[in-house]
């Protein structure tokens, strides 16, 4: 084992009514990938925010290279050699790659005049990207890059800051398999330079590939640190949730009932071509496909977020004209977007506000808002979905990712919709919370709701769907019933070979 870079000793953090971290010890060594694992609300995000200077610890010590430090701001974290790449990347889309890498630290010809040396910035960017084995032009605007390449820009930025510890928060949540493989190759190269990596992920199969050590947090406490080879997936699940999850996909079989939604010959400017399908009450209709296949575009077109060039939508046999999300909600549709932070929630508002926002009219009486009923409804839904902490006045932006997703679910349950479209419903959610989401979906179909579930995770699609539609290049290329569906068949159809 190489030298320790950081020692965390007895670190605790309290919020009103909640102990987020309780006497946590952790060692991070140079040149290791240390995976931080735990359910949403286990304390991972709080620990990261303490290391990066966003939160101040209430107790304990942080020791870097043998010297105790007090990290009081993000700037001090960077000065200590700690850099973080968040799930929502911190880049400016309309600036170039080089401008993003050196933003605020531009090399200058004449510092006193603030004249930027663009040639040196370009050359240093090329050098950093070459170190990562990444063929990206420094002149390209970030908005023209895919998520995988944007992550490489973030990593290059961290290297330019001389980071000795790079924290990666859910780095693979939006990546294709190929992009994940490229990221792991870069991570192994960074390790060889002696840089430490804290890797936060809920994808347990990936953890086995990349981790040197894994630390599991539960309810704000460290429960174990294990080396590679000392654990299997079942061990990690048990440590995370304090119990064995016998079924990762608790599918409930429900008798299919009447037609709920019919889509006929839909074309859009976003790439959909002659898409037709039917969804029924009491079934989960899975939609699979590779990144860019058109799955999210289909959901947005049905929900009125993107206009249709051609096509028809029928709800319970009646043709409807959905020109906006407002029309969709009135027609009984609910859409849980994969991007919950910008499209699913108002982060600066409370849990109660977000939960009741889409169904706010049911709380109006004679022109007045019945706030008591609104809050009672929000509290009951939050209890039903096990939102933690159960403080409905708390801002949604202060919750962990999994609990934010539960609030999005609560919002649509409040509308009493009959057709639910879930786009990546378990993205960024831990294994225990995933089972809670699956059970919620089961409850919906048992109550006669039609569920459309878009997912990039084939085991999830296979484990929960009654029927599966496969998309490729904006078209539906296959329809498979549960009994005949396999990963091989789905992948063949997803690549246009069905």
In the predicted model, the low-confidence regions spanning at least 5 consecutive residues are none
Number of domains: 2
Q: State the strand order across the main sheet.
A: 6-9-10-3-11-12
Fraction of residues in helices?
Answer: 25-40%
Count of DSSP-assigned helices: 17
The first-level CATH class name of the largest domain:
Alpha Beta
How many whole angstroms does the radius of gyration measure? Answer: 24 Å
Mean pLDDT: 87
Shape: globular
Biggest β-sheet description: 6 strands, mixed
CATH overall fold name of the largest domain: Rossmann fold
| Beta strands, count | 24
List its salient traits.
2 domains; 33% helix; Rossmann fold; 498 residues; six-stranded mixed β-sheet; single chain; alpha/beta; 17 helices; 24 strands
Can you walk me through this structure?
The chain has 498 residues and is of the alpha/beta class. Helix content is 33%, strand content 27%. Helix 5 (147-160) packs parallel to helix 6 (177-192). The longest helix has 16 residues, at 177-192. The chain is globular and about 70 Å long. The model has no long low-confidence stretch (mean pLDDT 87).
SSE topology:
Layout (H helix, E strand, L loop, with lengths): L3 E12 L2 E12 L3 E5 L6 H8 L7 E6 L2 E3 L4 H6 L2 E4 L11 H5 L6 E3 L4 E2 L1 H14 L15 H14 L4 E5 L7 H16 L3 E5 L3 H7 L2 E6 L2 E7 L5 H9 L17 E10 L6 E6 L3 E6 L5 H8 L5 E8 L2 E3 L4 H6 L2 E4 L3 H5 L6 H6 L7 E2 L2 E2 L1 H14 L16 H13 L5 E5 L7 H16 L3 E5 L3 H7 L2 E6 L2 E7 L5 H8 L4
Parallel strand pairs: 3-10, 3-11, 6-9, 9-10, 15-22, 15-23, 18-21, 21-22
Antiparallel strand pairs: 1-2, 1-4, 4-5, 7-8, 11-12, 13-14, 13-16, 16-17, 19-20, 23-24
Helix pairs in contact: 5-6
């Amino acid at each position: 084992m190489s030298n320790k870079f950081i020692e965390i000793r007895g670190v605790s953090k309290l919020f009103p009514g909640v102990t987020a971290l309780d006497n946590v010890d952790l060692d991070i060594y140079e040149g290791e990938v240390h995976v931080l694992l735990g359910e949403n609300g286990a304390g991972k995000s709080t620990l990261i925010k303490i290391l990066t200077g966003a939160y101040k610890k209430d107790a304990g010590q942080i020791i870097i290279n043998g010297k105790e430090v007090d990290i009081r701001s993000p700037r001090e974290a960077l000065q200590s050699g700690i850099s973080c790449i968040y799930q929502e990347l911190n880049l400016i889309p309309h600036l170039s790659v080089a401008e993003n890498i050196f933003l605020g630290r531009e090399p200058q010809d004449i510092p006193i005049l603030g004249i930027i040396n663009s040639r040196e910035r370009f050359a240093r960017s090329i050098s950093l990207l070459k170190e990562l084995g990444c063929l990206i032009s420094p002149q390209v605007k970030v908005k023209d890059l895919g998520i995988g390449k944007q992550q490489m820009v973030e990593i290059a930025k961290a290297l330019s800051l001389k980071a000795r510890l790079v924290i990666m928060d859910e780095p693979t949540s939006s990546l294709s398999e190929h992009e994940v493989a490229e990221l792991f190759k870069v991570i192994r190269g960074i390790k060889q330079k002696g840089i430490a990596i804290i890797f936060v992920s809920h994808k347990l199969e990936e953890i086995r590939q990349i981790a040197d050590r894994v630390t599991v947090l539960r309810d704000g406490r460290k429960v174990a640190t294990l080396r590679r080879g000392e654990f299997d997936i079942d061990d990690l699940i048990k440590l995370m949730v304090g119990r064995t999850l016998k079924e990762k996909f608790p599918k409930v079989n429900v008798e299919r009932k009447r037609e709920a939604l019919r889509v006929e010959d839909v074309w859009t400017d976003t790439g959909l071509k002659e898409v037709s399908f039917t969804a029924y009450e009491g079934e989960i209709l899975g939609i699979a496909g590779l990144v860019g296949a058109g799955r999210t575009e289909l959901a947005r077109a049905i929900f009125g977020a993107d206009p249709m060039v051609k096509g028809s939508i029928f709800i319970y046999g009646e043709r409807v004209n959905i020109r906006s999300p407002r029309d969709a909600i009135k027609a009984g549709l609910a859409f849980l977007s994969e991007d919950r932070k910008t499209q699913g929630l108002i982060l600066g508002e409370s849990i109660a506000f977000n939960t009741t926002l889409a169904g706010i009219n049911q709380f109006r009486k004679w022109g007045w808002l019945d706030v008591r009923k609104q809050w009672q409804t929000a509290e009951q839904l939050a209890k039903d979905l096990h939102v933690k902490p159960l403080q409905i006045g708390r801002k949604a932006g202060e919750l962990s990712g999994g609990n934010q997703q539960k609030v999005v679910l609560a919002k649509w349950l409040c509308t009493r919709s009959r057709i639910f479209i879930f786009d990546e419903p378990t993205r960024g959610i831990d294994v225990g919370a995933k089972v809670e989401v699956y059970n919620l979906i089961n409850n919906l179909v048992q109550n006669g709701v039609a569920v459309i579930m878009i997912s990039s995770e084939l085991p999830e699609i296979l484990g929960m769907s009654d029927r599966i539609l496969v998309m490729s290049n904006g078209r539906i290329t296959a329809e498979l019933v549960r009994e005949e569906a396999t990963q091989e068949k789905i992948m063949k159809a997803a690549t246009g070979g069905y």
